[in-house]
Amino acid sequence: MFGKVLRRIDWLTILIYLALVFIGWINIYSSTFSDEQTSLLDLSTRSGKQLFFIIVSLVTIIVVLALEANFYERFASLFYLLTMVSLLGLFVFGKTIAGATSWYDLGFFNFQPSELAKVSTALALAKYLSDIQTDLRRVKDQLYALLIILIPALLIIPQPDPGSALVFFSLVFVIFREGLPLYYLGIGFTLILIFIITLMFGTIWLTIGLSLLIVLFFLLKRKTLKVPIIPIIIGSIVVILFSLSVNFVFNNLFEQRHRNRFSLWLRLEKDPEKLEEIRKTIGYNTYQSEKAIESGGLSGKGFLEGTRTKGDFVPEQDTDYIFTTIGEEWGFVGTATVIILFSILFLRLIYLAERQKNGFSRMYGYGVISVLLVHYFINIGMVIGILPTIGIPLPFFSYGGSGLLFFTLLLFIFLKLDTNRLKENF
What we know:
Blueprint: H1 2-8, H2 11-32, H3 46-66, H4 70-74, H5 76-93, E1 95-97, E2 100-105, E3 110-111, H6 113-130, H7 139-156, H8 162-168, H9 172-177, H10 182-201, H11 203-220, H12 229-253, H13 256-265, H14 272-280, H15 284-295, H16 307-310, H17 323-354, H18 359-383, H19 401-419, H20 421-424
Antiparallel strand pairs: 1-2, 2-3
Helix pairs in contact: 2-3, 2-17, 3-19, 5-6, 6-7, 6-8, 6-18, 6-19, 7-8, 10-11, 10-12, 11-12, 15-17, 17-18, 18-19
């Protein structure tokens, strides 16, 4: 039975997974290396602990592949419910690390239920969307699907862990893939754009720009084209009202550290000297990571030869900022290799998802893609300075037992579902 699974499984995806995990572990070892370190298997070091969790993840893969594929669909709702309970339990029994109460202390292992929640939410969403009674043309069903995503996000934000909460909203793309009208996506991107424009230029300039666009539209439109005026007026009023609320939200609901990161990202400070000072204080992590990657050049300084890595210039270099170690020690060649591996992985997963005959398998596959892609895009974006610092790990790379274990679980459940595709054809 298990031999048939091994013959059917997608080995290209597994090889990419193993390559990413190995490269990640090598760079964790490098970023935490010290002269006192004597053994790769020393569990008192971060590289030793990560190696232990790599072994645990490999055992988890065997368990995942050994279970029947329909097990995951049958118990998806139960997994989701238990995970939500574990998130609620953090408010009573949680352990606080770096200001966030996101972990359970299990002794040697700190368990982070938000990582498991990504798996269970992707399963629950796929289960609901694949139900024969679900019709995304109905507003009620659209709201239920969004609620599945919203509940874990709302439980994670107060920890506080807005970065992890943001990842859950990536699962909205699964709903769009299955038929949610695209105008919802347009509304979402429009609100984000208005938020950013208001912060950068203010409501007055946004109103002037909006007015000019409307005038230009009416001047250039064809005379035969009839455009209803009232919806345009109502839409403009909504945009302006939303813009007026932005400063209140930004100044009263955002924490100071979040405002500082947006100020740095959007260059809200106009004085070049003050902006540079912000980069070296508030944006210290990003500033140092940019310098470390820049110093790597084409081929890097060599394994264990990164001066900024050895000097601990970049905080959290084995977790959220691990990509800087690759940039400094392996240069453009190393970073390009990692990006290519991730790109091939995403393209392969899209191919696997599209070939599924079972709706649950396809939808879960797109859930896996959404979660991994958002992690990858945000992590590398913040490390190279094009996105604000949020604090989420690079999949299969960053140090962390919970992260590696549940990213592995997320991926290999889908690979198990894919092996069942051949049975469904008969």
